[in-house]
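Today's session is about reading a structure prediction critically. Students often jump straight to the picture, but the first step is always the sequence itself: look for stretches that repeat, for charged clusters, for runs of hydrophobic residues. Only then move on to the predicted structure, which in these notes is written as discrete structure tokens rather than atom positions. Here is the chain we will use throughout the hour.
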Amino acid sequence: MFFLEPIFLQKLNTFIVVILINKYFTDMNHSILSKDYLSILTKAVRERDINLIQSLARVDSVLNIKVLQHISKNMQIENKDILLALTNIAYDVNEVISDEDDTILMQAASSGILPVVKALVGLGANVNFLSKERSFALFNAAYEFHQDVFDYLAPLTKLELKQEAQEILEKSVIKKNKYNEFEEEFITAAAMGDLNTVENCISVGVNINAVGEDEVTGLYLAASWGHLLVVTKLIEAGANLEIGRESDGETPLIATVGNAPILSNQNSAKCLEQLNVIQVLIQAGANVNATTTEGWNAIEAAANTGNIEAVTLLIKAGADVNVKDNWGDTALSRALEAGYTDIVQILIESGAIE
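Below is the predicted structure for this chain, in token form.
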């Protein structure tokens, strides 16, 4: 029996594939061909068939851009020769390739694929290209918190753009703690007061300070809904008392105080448990004078909702009775407006002034 050598088979397969692609290209539109083209190219990359990659690159320039766009988003490639073959698929590495006005480099930076980023820069990709929305490669790397890509691109980027991206990077550090399915299960359990699930998650090493889809931690939700046992467990496990809601910085203590009236409508026992949560947070060291980005604070929230017990707890813990929010309001002005005379009296006796 006659057997063909593997290397000959590989070359023959490459030749046949290229002929078929060129034939189909004359008969079919790009949208139909693209899926098959990507599939063949992906297989060629995995098998490190550089000859096939280079042959595919000659089929069509429009598809070539789409292919490299796909690669920059989805494929981790380390082999230098393959990278060069892939990046040479695009005739212009600075061509805008999406409705968002992105270049291939910007998409690769956003995906965090450092080898592709390096290869594109080596081929002349413009690191300082600005989209219509003022996005650029370093910005994308910072926003998605790809530190290695950021470190590579930063020295190549204009100073003013670098400074802008640095600010984004600092904000994106929080994203490192962003939720995954396991952490989301933990955060949901905390919000529901499911102590058993919370304990199980902690026992297997969950990040207790993870920020979930609602932009808050498990402690924030457990505290704001008055789940005393869960709050106590989280504090014992080392939960950070000051991680606030991402949108405005509202801390667990501020949220708990503000949510107390909602719980008081349910039953007195739940309201008492909420007060106990406030006390536990304070005893654990929660900052009673923390504010949101708009200056909203715990004692103002307590006065605004008529929670005299919470007002008393906060004053005893050292809350500033005269702190003003961004609108110039204080706990006293809120209590006066709402007609909570008992709270007004307590605040004045504690040094509050109009």
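Discussion point for the tutorial: The longest helix spans residues 6-27.
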